[in-house]
Specification:
The structure holds two protein chains of two kinds.
Chain A (H helix, E strand, L loop, with lengths): L13 E2 L3 H27 L2 H31 L6 H24 L9 H22 L2 E2 L4
Antiparallel strand pairs in A: 1-2
Helix pairs in contact in A: 1-2, 1-4, 2-3, 3-4
Chain B lengths: L5 E4 L3 E4 L28 E4 L15 E7 L5 E6 L5 E5 L10 H11 L10 E6 L9 E6 L7 E5 L2 E5 L3 E6 L12 E5 L10 E5 L5 E6 L18 E6 L5 E6 L4 E6 L6 E5 L11 E6 L11 E2 L3 E2 L8 H6 L5 E5 L3 E6 L11 E6 L12 E8 L2 E2 L4 E4 L3 E2 L2 E2 L3 E7 L3 E6 L4 E7 L4
Antiparallel strand pairs in B: 1-2, 2-3, 4-32, 5-6, 6-7, 7-8, 9-10, 10-11, 11-12, 13-14, 14-15, 15-16, 17-18, 18-19, 19-22, 20-21, 23-24, 24-25, 25-26, 25-27, 28-29, 30-31, 31-32
The chains are: A mainly alpha, B mainly beta.
Chain lengths: ~150, ~425
């Protein structure tokens, strides 16, 4: 029997993720959101510095989120037997955030307004993935008490 | 064929390309066909890695000979032939614009693969051929401790040098081989950021004015509009007072200028914008109109709007002058010189153009010196190859920069990759 999707967001009885993993995961949402806000600022002011900020924030999301993704993949592999669906969904969301952000980084490497409006929509998409991954990740990935 | 990755093709060229690998040849002339802009997820980048000339020399037309009159220079860019036949070579490497984005770091790294590892000399070297046999047996430093000197001009007994940040002058007596001392400043030149740092220079025929070519501070305003104040234009500077006014604007990177002999027409070659497709935007050769606006950044090749620029300016687009002659996109024209009957034959009437060569194209273009035939003072006909062989199986042996006519009947070509000055002469009696 498949469990309903709602259990993904059920936090009771889940153990928190490793502090270093949490630190890495903590990069993703603020970086993606920062890029999105910078893109909005560039689109509404045409001040190029906002586009530069966005490019670096996306780079930050790729680095922090990349290591979080690596952590998620490695632990999903190591704990194959006890792997939870939460772990899998979490890893997939991080992967989606990373791929969208990578494309977004290339788009933001275009000069001036050539990055727009595609860059803004990609930043928005990456932000949504990062928020979902953070929600699940920070709620805990696996059942069980801390040892 | 589509390639979508960093790859090292044959170990010779560093390639990043996302667009079609075999775009059609760029078009030339007064009325080139302009394709639609294109830019994949990655810009097309092919940087030709350097290789040595060895025993090879540039290929020149039948009836012409080529020799290296100076080698092991320190990044030679432009040359000036003095009245006694001596040659001054400006050597230097400027720029140093800060990387603002992750992209800048990566792009700079890739482009540096196609450049000489030698440090710019920041000096003027003087070459002399005392006995007129075409061998420049004497060589010395005329002046040093300059700041990326590029443009050179002589008015009477005053030598003007355009450093990357100021126009300076030396007094010069015929036959002098060394400057009397440090130069005197004539005028400060726009130098903040200096994305395009070269300051091209030429003097009006009457010697009253100097014209300085000042490149834009970005490809297409990606360093912000504020960075473009006093950029992408030609200044007219009063030779006596140093006072300046913009002579013509909207010229993205006017890298070399010269007056058509016997006239007051200022001609320039201009490097146009990148990351807009393999056959956009054509670099060009044009006579420059006083007060003219040539499009950058708002428009290209006349009144075609560049959508990458915000805020847009339809009024400026409407004002944009279409240049006279397209040299082909991405060829990177860095040198211009009018020919004379002393060059002989098919090359007596027209303009030589030094093409440094492309990076933003999956099939490289440029890397040669071409001749644009003229009739009645206007370009008439397709470019003719005058010196080729700078690119050999995807590797660059040299990259032409300045071209200068020696009135005795020779074309000087500065090669800033192999650090050589080439001299091309009609063979006597042929």
């Amino acid at each position: 029997m498949t469990r309903p999707m709602l259990t993904i967001f059920q936090t009771s009885g889940l153990r928190p993720i490793h502090p270093v993993h949490a630190l890495l995961l903590a990069f993703t949402a603020p970086m993606c959101l920062g890029a999105l806000l910078s893109d909005i600022a560039y689109a509404s002011t045409y001040q190029i510095q906002w586009a530069n900020f966005a490019a670096w924030l996306i780079m930050g999301a790729l680095v922090g989120g990349g290591f979080a993704l690596l952590w998620a993949l490695i632990s999903a592999l190591r704990e194959r037997a006890a792997r939870s669906r939460r772990q899998l969904v979490y890893a997939l969301l991080l992967l989606a955030m990373w791929i969208v952000s990578f494309v977004n980084a290339l788009v933001h490497a275009k000069d001036a307004w050539a990055a727009m409006p595609a860059g803004l929509w990609l930043s928005l998409t990456a932000t949504v993935f990062a928020l979902l991954a953070s929600w699940i990740g920070f709620s805990g990935l696996r059942a069980g008490d801390l040892k | 064929m589509k390639r979508r990755s960093f790859l090292l093709s044959g170990g010779a060229a560093l390639t990043v390309t996302a667009c079609g690998a075999n775009p059609p040849e760029p078009e030339y002339g007064a009325d080139p066909t302009l394709p639609d802009p294109e830019r994949g997820l990655l810009p097309s980048m092919v940087v030709s890695r350097p290789t040595a000339w060895g025993d090879a020399t540039p290929t020149v037309p039948n009836g012409y000979a080529v020799s290296a009159i100076a080698s092991e220079l320190a990044i030679p860019r432009q040359t000036l032939v003095l009245p006694n036949g001596d040659i001054l070579v400006a050597e230097g490497s400027g720029g140093g614009a800060p990387a603002l984005r992750p992209k800048d770091l990566i792009a700079n790294l890739i482009k540096s693969q196609g450049k000489s590892a030698v440090k710019g000399g920041d000096r003027l070297t003087l070459l002399r051929d005392a006995d007129g046999d075409g061998v420049y047996e004497m060589r010395g430093v005329f002046a040093d401790e300059l700041n990326a000197p590029y443009g050179l001009a002589l008015i009477g007994e005053t030598l003007y040098v355009a450093n990357q940040d100021e126009l300076v002058r030396f007094s010069y007596r015929p036959g002098q081989t060394q400057a009397n001392g440090a130069p005197e400043r004539v005028a400060a030149l726009p130098s903040a950021i200096n994305h395009h740092w070269t300051k091209a220079l030429t003097a009006s025929p009457d010697g009253r004015f100097l014209y300085v070519g000042i490149g834009s501070n970005s490809n297409i305003t990606e360093r912000g509009m504020e960075a473009e104040v006093d950029r992408a234009m030609i200044w007219e500077i009063d030779a006596q007072s140093g006072a300046h006014r913009p002579f013509a604007t909207g010229l993205r990177n006017p890298t070399a200028m010269t007056f058509r002999p016997g006239t007051n027409e200022l001609w320039t070659v201009v490097n146009e914008r990148d990351e807009f497709g393999p056959n956009l935007v054509p670099d060009y050769l044009t006579a420059v109109r006083d007060g003219g606006f040539y499009g950058w950044p708002y428009a290209y090749w006349g009144q075609n709007t560049d959508p990458r620029v915000r805020p847009q300016d339809p009024e400026m687009v409407a004002r944009s002058i279409r240049p006279d002659y397209a040299l082909g996109s991405h060829v990177a024209a860095l040198g211009v010189a009018f020919s004379s009957p002393a060059m002989g034959g098919a090359f007596a009437e027209g303009v030589f153009v030094g093409e440094h060569g492309s990076w933003n194209r999956s099939v490289p273009v440029g890397y040669k010196v071409v001749f644009i035939p003229f009739r009645n003072g206007r370009p008439a006909g397709d470019p003719i190859d005058f010196a080729t062989g700078f690119l050999d199986n995807g590797r660059a042996r040299g990259r032409p920069v300045g071209v200068t006519l020696d009135p005795r009947g020779a074309l000087l070509v500065a090669d800033d990759l192999s650090n050589t000055i080439w001299r091309i002469t009609p063979t006597v009696g042929s």
